[in-house]
Amino acid sequence: MLDDQTGGTRPAHAAADHPKVRMGKVGILLANLGTPDGHDYWSMRRYLSEFLSDQRVIDYPKWKWQPLLQTVILAKRPFTSGAAYRSIWNHEADESPLMTITKAKTLKIAAKMADMYGDAVEVDFCMRYGNPSTKSKVEELIAKGCRKILFFPLYPQYAGATSATANDQFFRALMEQKWQPTARVVDPYFEHPKYIEALAASVERAYAAAQQEPELLICSYHGLPQRYLMEGDPYHCQCQKTTRLLKERLGWDDSRIKTTFQSQFGPEEWLRPYTVEEVARLAAEDGIKRIAVVAPAFSADCIETLEEINEEIKESFEHAGGESFTYIPCLNDDDAHIEALSTVIAENLGGWIG
Fold it and tell me: How far is CA 108 from CA 47, 76, 105, 308, 332, in A?
């Protein structure tokens, strides 16, 4: 940050030999979960080791968890996870869909911010796991003169395993700075009217395009251990509220929409009902033939949506007798989503920039 060759200026009243300082901008740092650099064994192993070693994600004691993770789990899981990533990989860009979508979303938000604030802001993105790292992007923003940084975890609903660990990593990066910028963190936006509107519009488009209207909309959220809810994590309640607000915006009754949870891992009880089991039960026991599935907890399509929902969960439904399965894509870089996220950002910049 202190570099007399980078076009900065000397602070007022500073001595003539004081290094020039680049400062005065506001940084906006969007944060997503992360992605492996490739779908080969070693790329997957590095990524999974970082992800599954995070005690916000798996909170078992390290002495008990790490030997199991590093020997048994990471000997096999990179192969199966790598095959799943390979099935959805953006081979043209040689990156995961999450990376492609996050880049596109960042460019659109940056354009919005430039329209609103000119060159007073810098917009970038980071990943909690993998690359680009949170630390590297914090350093880049500071080097560009950002003395204020707004950190935006791209999770509509708060969970310790998503929002909190992203925040942890952001503040770890700040801990390494001699001169820390002023920082703010964006609150979860699970009930923001523009987010609900964008979500509802995506459902309406999908229903209008369907040959036959789905009988039931499944709102499939990423799961968490049931224990986390009992320990005070608000995620379950925020998911339920998102579903309720979506239902009300669509003008539906309770019979047309249902909340479920996916991506269970490990032996303990997770939030129920489990999506993969519930779609099969709906087909086999309730005779539901046509469903649509939307994933309101994900701001961008990723392995959990493109592979788990649109392949595994779809297969579970069809094997149980379901006939029509409609996956409604995440909001991604849809214009209504960009408008919603930009509005949230603008609301959080109050007092920092005009």
Answer: 27, 39, 5, 28, 11
